[in-house]
Design a protein that fits this description.
Number of domains: 3
Shape: elongated
Strand order of the largest sheet: 2-1-3-4
Distance between the termini: 113 Å
Radius of gyration: 28 Å
CATH class of the largest domain: Alpha Beta
CATH topology of the largest domain: Rossmann fold
Helix content: 40-55%
Bound molecules: 1-methylethyl 1-thio-beta-D-galactopyranoside
CATH superfamily of the largest domain: Response regulator
Number of helices: 13
Length: 356
């Protein structure tokens, strides 16, 4: 079958080739009536404009490139969802490339550039040097990073990991918890390392050491497995700080299997506040990272990036969302007996002293 061209559309609509081209490119100076006529002819002929040809003719593609980590994870998929909807609103399209690890980034970047994206968004955890290298490779195409440390010399839009971690730890301390276990994200993630550092700093300031530090891979399955590991450790924790809500989901399952009541016997605090976290049993207390806002602001930047030379670096706030997986510490039976024993010994001592 012969491919339908602009000429066929022009012929059927009874207008010139240039007029059809103007309608396709949303150019000015086309009357509503003409536009309608052309659109009708296009529909009738099943004509689809050829982006490649438009691009060769030097037209803007309004195509954004998005490189993302595993979309099976809730946080990255919710960011992509927000990016897509804002881009559609703005008349831009998004090409998505998913990478399994940081080392695939360079090839993915080349592939997106080969498709002539106008700007790039990268939501892959990257160390400073690696992000800086990708920024140099992408030049002059603007590139924005979502999962880097604020110290990286690249354009970035990031949530404050340390602040979020401190909020979670302070919340547990304010509830009277002292035996706190930490379930971190993978070592390869900058954000996971920053969250761990934030927790540790807050606990140290309170004169405490975590009762366990365990690493998972962000998935609910790893939360379940590591949750069981923590719960069968030498010291039973009063609370667990979990580096993301998906792992918290697995931890909650492990608690249920062990018959440990949340929040009666253990408090759980997550990180992310993904769309499902309010629907866990019980609804999860967590640190909110506003993924929708992050996705939307990224698109705004990508469509109007700052002038070259200057670094654009923005930190987004994180907030504590208190739901029902955390509650005031209730001393355990053993602790209460221990306290009673100590008080009796003290009373005895006081009596002796009084007699002397
Ligand atoms: C980060 C999430 O907090 C975590 O749950 C996990 O999905 C991770 O991404 C995947 O890389 S959010 C990121 C913008 C720091």
């Amino acid at each position: 079958m012969k491919a339908i061209t602009l000429y066929d559309v022009a012929l059927l609509a009874g207008v010139s080739y240039q007029t059809v081209s103007r309608v396709i490119n949303d150019a000015e100076h086309v009357s509503a009536r003409t536009r309608e006529k052309v659109q009708k002819a296009m529909a009738e002929l099943h004509y689809v404009p050829n982006r490649g040809a438009q691009q060769l003719a030097g037209k803007r593609t309004r195509t954004l490139g998005l490189m993302t980590t595993d979309l099976a994870l809730h946080a990255p998929s919710q960011i992509v969802s927000a990016v897509k909807s804002r881009a559609v609103e703005k008349g831009a399209s998004v090409l998505i490339s998913m990478v399994e690890n940081a080392w695939q980034c360079q090839a993915a970047l080349q592939e997106l550039l080969a498709q002539r994206v106008e700007a790039l968004l990268v939501n892959v955890p990257l160390d400073d040097a690696h992000a800086e290298q990708l920024q140099a490779l992408a030049s002059p195409v603007p590139i924005l990073f979502l999962d880097v440390s604020p110290g990286a010399q690249v354009h970035s839009l990031v949530f404050s990991a340390e602040q979020g971690a401190a909020l979670g730890a302070e919340h547990l301390l304010s509830l009277g918890h002292q035996r706190i276990a930490l379930l971190c994200g993978p070592e390869s993630s900058v954000s996971a390392r920053a969250r761990l550092a934030g927790w540790q700093e807050t606990l140290t300031q309170a004169g405490l050491e975590p009762v366990a530090v365990v690493k998972g891979d962000w998935s609910a399955a790893s939360g379940y497995e590591k949750g069981h590991q923590i719960l069968s450790g030498a010291v039973q924790p009063d609370a667990i700080l979990v580096a993301n809500d998906q792992m918290a989901l697995g931890v909650m399952r492990a608690c249920a299997e062990k018959g440990i009541a949340i929040p009666g016997q253990i408090s759980i605090v997550g990180f992310d506040d993904t769309a499902d976290s309010a629907w866990f049993t019980p609804p999860l207390t967590t640190i909110r990272q506003a993924f929708r806002e992050a996705g939307e602001q990224s698109v705004e930047w990508l469509l109007a990036p700052v002038s070259a030379g200057e670094l654009w670096q923005k930190q987004l706030p994180v907030t504590l969302i208190t739901r029902h997986s955390s509650a005031r510490h209730i001393p355990r039976q053993a602790d209460r007996e221990d306290l009673a024993r100590q008080l009796r010994a003290l009373a005895l001592l006081a009596e002796q002293l009084a007699r002397e």
